[in-house]
Amino acid sequence: MLRFLGQRLLLMIPTVVVPLVLVFLLLRLAPGDPAAQILGDQASPSEIAALRSEMGLDLPLPVQFVLWAKNIVTLKLGTSFFFKQPVIDLLPQYALVTLQIALAALFLAVALGSILGVVAAINKDGVLDRGLVGVAVLGISLPEFWLALLLIFLFAVTLRWFPVSGYVPPADGLLASAATIALPALALGIRQSALITRMMRSSMLDVLGEPYIVTARAQGLPEAMVIGRYAVRTAAIPVVTVAGLSASYLLSGAVSIELIFSLPGLGKLLIDAVARRDYPVVEGAVLLIALMLAALNLIIDVVYALLDPRVRMG
Amino acid sequence: MTDQAPILEVRDLSVSLPISGRMVPVVTDLSMSISPGEAVALVGESGCGKSMTARAIIGLPPPGAVVSGSIRLEGRELTTLSPRERRRVGGRGIGFIFQEPMTSLHPTLSIGQQMTDALRYNLNLPTRVARDRARELLARVGLPKERDLLNAYVHELSGGMRQRVMIAMAISCNPKLVIADEPTTALDVTIQAQVLELLIAMRAEIGLAMLYISHDLEVVAEFCDRAIVMYAGDQVEAGTPVECLKMPHHPYTRGLVDAIPHAGEARARLSPIPGQVPSLGSWPRGCRFQPRCPRQDDRCATRPELATVVRSEVRCWHPLVGEVS
Ligand SMILES: Nc1ncnc2c1ncn2[C@@H]1O[C@H](COP(=O)(O)OP(=O)(O)OP(=O)(O)O)[C@@H](O)[C@H]1O
Ligand SMILES: [Mg+2]
Fold first, then answer.
1. CATH for A91-313?
2. What separation in Å is there between the alpha carbon of B314 and the centre of ligand 1?
3. Which protein residue has the closest C-alpha to ligand 1 atom 16?
4. Exposure check for chain B: N or C terminus, fewer CB within 10 A?
């Protein structure tokens, strides 16, 4: 198990490094001068040149790259040009919003999807199964932004159960905070839960035809135990793959759904920072998102290994 | 032995399966009775309905199957039980050994978890006691004590070890009857003999009754008290296995015996039965063996009943009475 974890940690490195290098290059090679941007139209060329050398932008690209890489590795993310605050202090509050939405959506997707998938499978071809399969097809075909607008209109504007937009941090009241992320999480999670429902259903149907299920039944074990312990255990394995994809999708989805609900998350921070050419913030945010995605992959791998001894030992 | 009240009594068991939209008979009017401690063999070619019979008896036929007839276990009618009560017959009443130990054991639950689940649930044992008993059982079926097999998974075991685990599981909750569905077919030849020996020894030790499914009449003759020969879902002959071998009465049984290769005999002397087993859904109306039978005539267009011929029960209008040459 330790060797397995070590291998997985090594595999994480490229998933973090590649996006960072891309961002470094894109920012440096894109037209437009951040120093000029920061100082505004009134600045004289000498003022701009002074700021450029202060920011290290006058150095050759390879030198900049080495300095940059050193700073990333030592987690010196620099100070935001715009906020005049260390990036490392700036990120957590934005990340929290994104994580909250993504995790709530993931929980919704996995819990609802798994349960509905199992229910559909054990009622195969029954009314319940047909209904669930129909709803899942609908859920998969709804685009998220459309669903988001629909939810806003129904629950926020018409029923007034939830706020239309805005964000309350958990420190100011858990319930109020949950209410502000409920709709974005729902908008994001429904499609994934429909995907997981379908996956769980077909995986369960495969497993229920396996000889070891007949063995468990022939041993006299009650059906609830056969389903809940013997069937779900193996049926969940392929679902974890889908859930893993969902999770990375949800993380990036959270970044974009924040814009619809105007929530102060990493997505909004990133978009604003790009517009302001606030390099340190862009790099910091990308680093954080890449790290979160890598951590997610690691978690998925660990869940895999827990579910399947063949992976753990192989 | 046969005077005692039977453990298992099956009367007119029929099983139909839905195949491309219509119900097709797979097993018809099968009757048998197994006394305490007795070993009965169910013999026939692949696809003749042996496994289906076994699955109907334990109440786990494939989805959509229609089962009719009477199945009594120690005098208790099983076919009228509620699904919940029916399920509880498994493990405690009847132990089951499957043909494919690899796929019949759970891939991601350890051997110990699978064994203790049944022990805890069926015998209400606390976990610790159940684990101790599982360990005992594994030792009893000849698995090495040194290896901690309770924490092993099926993919870590060899074929022979897997089948020993299956046997341990089948006898774990003290059933009086074990159904073994071709328990050695998936194993290497040398391992086959070991597993068979183990089964025979266990049977003697516990006094188990056994329904042993096989396609090999000679193997079952070594330890079974009676044999039932099946052909295309039908019971064609029932008698002692030795009688079936030495003096087969049904032309199909005779065909089976003639097809057994013997050491020192030229291959050319083997006479396979001409023709092919009719496929499901296209069985002849009368005797199922008629199209392939050397003794068939017009009478065979109606289905013969089981009738006593010498010491066996035979379903044939023209049974053989002489010895095999
Ligand atoms: N789930 C199923 N659906 C449809 N047909 C089936 C199903 N299971 C078995 N059959 C068919 O029923 C017939 C009897 O099958 P069964 O498994 O009882 O044969 P068998 O005598 O055990 O053969 P073998 O020696 O190969 O195990 C076969 O023709 C088989 O193709
Ligand atoms: Mg079979």
1. 1.10.3720.10
2. 23
3. B49
4. C
